[in-house]
Structure formats: structure tokens, C-alpha cells
Amino acid sequence: MKQIIFLTLLLLSSLYSKTSDYSVIIDKPFSDALFDITEDYDRSISAVGFSREFKQNSHTSKTYTNAFDYLSSVSNKHGSQIHLLKLNNKAEVVLSKATKLSRFTEAVALAKTPANGYYIGGYTLDGDLLILKLDSNGNIIFNKTFGTKNYDRMNNLILMSDGGVLAVGSSVTSRSAHDSMFETGLGKNDIYITRFSKDGAKLWSKKYGTKYDDRGIDASEARDGSIIVVSTTSYDKNKNVTLMRITENGNRMWLKHYKSENLVTPRKIIRLRDNNFVLALSEYNNMQKEQIRLIKFDLYKNVLIDKKIFTTYPSTLNDIKEFSDGSFIGVGYVKDTYNTDGLVMILDSHLTMRNQEHYGQDQYDLFNAVTILHNSQAAAAGVHTNNNSQETNMWIAKFNRDGTLAQISTNVTNFYQKLCDIFKKEIDEHIITIKEDLTIELIDKSLYFKVGEYKLTDKQKLFLDGFSKKLVPFLNANKEQINTLEINGHTSSEWGTENFAKGYVKNEKLSINRSFSTLSYIFLNQSKPTQINLSKILRGSGFSYSKKMMLNDSEDREKSRRVAFKIILK
To answer: For the whole prediction, is pTM greater than 0.85?
Structure first.
């Protein structure tokens, strides 16, 4: 699994440093996490989750007979509280505020108000549900605690077209048919949905379910005001997915069950621009490996697309959003035996994967939510774990349209346009392609390497001669703003009959050799003054087959055998 070292690190307690990549880690004492993210009207980025604090208790002689009363008494001393973060375009934290409520709280969702404030949905750790309305500075306008007499848990908070919100979650069954909210079900948990007006008035609360364990996961409002709710029903060793359409008042219109022999878990549902819906699920295959499943359906429960995305490593999308052209970005996690990385995946309008990127270090990293920004970039929020640490940290990263990590520098767009102008001929003739993160990919077939080879062919040398005559003067002219020129070697994934470990190591060596052949050819054909300048920014590396090229969910081995260039700004 590819592992990318974070280039931006934010330690609020002691250190703040940044480079050109927009990836921010907020490292506070104890475990923290972010669960949702949105763009503000001033183009800043806000995210919500929880942080934990510890302060020494003052001595008290009071005796408690109830555990929850004791937890409430110390919740401002030690425990999780809802935490709101706001970052500007320079990846600087301009707002960091934890609530000081009387009980332990955690947030799961964030939505914007017309006044550039926020709705935050969450729960107390002793079983109540919360909705907070904040102003743009994070000050509480109102705080609503609600739920049943039993243990409740919120999974999402959805902004509705009337300016109010819909809370979706689960509640331990009341086991009383006289409960005024009781619809169906006497199981362990029931689906629990509550709707609020924009002023915070509760409009209705209802439960739905079976005699089994039912949990509300997510919901989406249709254009006609009805609501599609996705939930799970668990019994024995099975977990079924249920789609339910209800009216704006919570009355059920239809129900559809998805049964599978494999364990299936719904993660997110979104409404599309064409008024259809996409449901993202994770499903274990016959090898007990988590894979991504995406279902597109209409308002009348007709399935339009049912796509399974097969990846090398177990993968899950926790959130998905639609671009204006009908393509998608999804975020989640990818894991192997030893670690978990954040996953960013780009899909076309038919839900076919275009490419994926993995971000993280050696331990536990993942993305929980993504939002698409005004400039077609995207921002994700999640969890990062430092090496040799057992505590999670809050993590925000910004990505380009192709899933690559965005850069902070305001010069990135200018550099991208200049490179496109310089290499217009090569781009028009489909020899190279340039990405917004300043990666230059060689896409002409004559520039790929043959199986197992790393020495440059005459055609590759001829191309590099013309390519370097354009690129090197550009690098020299902008040397004050350029930190690194990476030359990265890549391979396809096969290596004869070798086992996994030996195949990977040999491909790693081959990718390094391809990088070195290209780097040394360009470097040795320059004048000494130019070589001195290049020596300060050139960096070669090998990625083995971790960045293999994909076509229709399968590896394109020929395109995988390549080198690529990437400019990193200061």
C-alpha cells in the first residue's frame, strides 16, 4: 500500500509548520477526530468532531449512586466535547472551539445556516441526542437535547429545503406499544428520526423498525419534499440494508430490502442533480475482504446501476459527493494487514472508478467526510495517527479534481496554466497530460517501458531532449518558488511466478532504476550552471506498482510502466 508522508503538520499545543500541500493535522492531547466538513460562504473550510481534555478534579466529598450523574459532574474535567475547526485558504486555523457543555458530547454532522453559521448534530455519551445552532464565530445560539428515555444515538443530521434539519439515528426499543412515537418494532434498536424547524422547534419524532435490531444510518430529501432513509436490520449473522421513503411528515410510502449472503453496511446516501440517488455501501466478498458497492436508484425504488468496485486492498467509502459534470469523489479508507490509509477515489458518471489515491503513514488514517468546493476542488475530514502513537488526531486535507493533494500556494494555478501553455503541442498531440497538482504524466505508448526494462530507448531519449529544453528553462526562471522536481518511476504489478514479497521488492528496484535512468539522462545533458541549479531540486523515487494505472476496474499494465514528473512549490 502506498504511504505518503504528510507535508503539512499543525501542532496547536506547540508547533505549526506547513509546506505546499494542503494537509493539516491538529494534534491535541488525547484522542480526537473529525466527522464532517463543509465550505463556508467566505471560502474557508469548517469541520466538526470531538476533542478530549483533562483537568485535575477539585476534591469533593459528594457521594454518587448513579454512574451517569458522576460522569456529568466531571464532564468539563475529563471527556470528549464537540469541537469546531475553521481553516482559511492558507491552511491556517482561524477558529478552534470546543463546547463546554455539562455532559460528554460528540458531533457527527455539520450543516450551514443562511447566516454563515452552523447546525451541529451529535449525542451525549449517556444516550441523549443533541442539535446545536452556532453563529459564524462558533458561539451557541441554541442547544436542543432530545430523545427517548432509553439510549439513543445519532448517525447524521441532514439540512432540509425549509432551512430546518432532520436527525437520523437509532433508539433502544421502548418495548411499549403505548409510546406515542411507536410505529413498529420490538427489537433491540429501532430507527429513530426527528425533524426540526429552522428555529429549532421539534416538528415530529418517529420510530420505525422490525422485531430485530434496526439502525438508521442516513437520509436524503427528494425534490418533492419526501425523504429517502437508509437503515440496517441485523439478525443472527446477517445484516440487511433497507431503503424507506417517507413523506415530509414521516409517514411511510414504500420500503425496499436488500438482502445479501455477505455482510453489507450502508455508509452514505446522496441525491443527484437528476433527482436520482446514489447509495454507498461496503460489502465483504467471499474472501472476507471489504469492497465498495454503489447503487443508483430512482424515487420509485428502481435500481439504475449496481456497481461493485474491486480493489487490491480492502476498501470502503464513508462519503461520496457529485461534481457538476456528473462524476464523483468518494473518501474513506483502505487497509492491509498492518495499517489503514485514507482513501480518495474518483468515479465517472457511471460509477466506474477512474483513479484512487492513498494518504497516510504507518498506522491508522482515514477520511470520514468530503465536501466539494466552489473551485471544483474537494476537502475531506478524518483521523490521523502519528507514528509510534496510540492517540488519533483531527485531519483536514484538500484535493484536486483528480484526487491528488492540492497545494496551498496561490501560485499553483499560475504554474499549471504556464505549464499547459509551454507544453500545448505535446498535450494536443496526446503525448503528455498535466494535472492540477503539477504532475506531468507521459501518455504516448512509445514512452512506456517494456516489461522488466529500465534503460531508455531512442524514442524516449528523443522525447526527453525536447521535453527538457522546455522544462529546464522554466524551472530555472522560477527557481525561487520551486522546492522540488520529482521524477517518479512506476511499474505494473506482475513479476513472473515470484511470491508477493519478492515481486514487490523487485518491482520497487525496477521503478527506482527507471527513475534514475530518466533523471541522470536529463541531468547529464545540461550545462554545469544548470546542473548546479537542478541538484538543489531534483529528487528521484520509485513507487513499485502502488500507483498502477486502472481502466474499467482492471490494471492497464502497459500504461503502468512509466515515469512521471511532479513540481512541488515552496
So the answer is: no
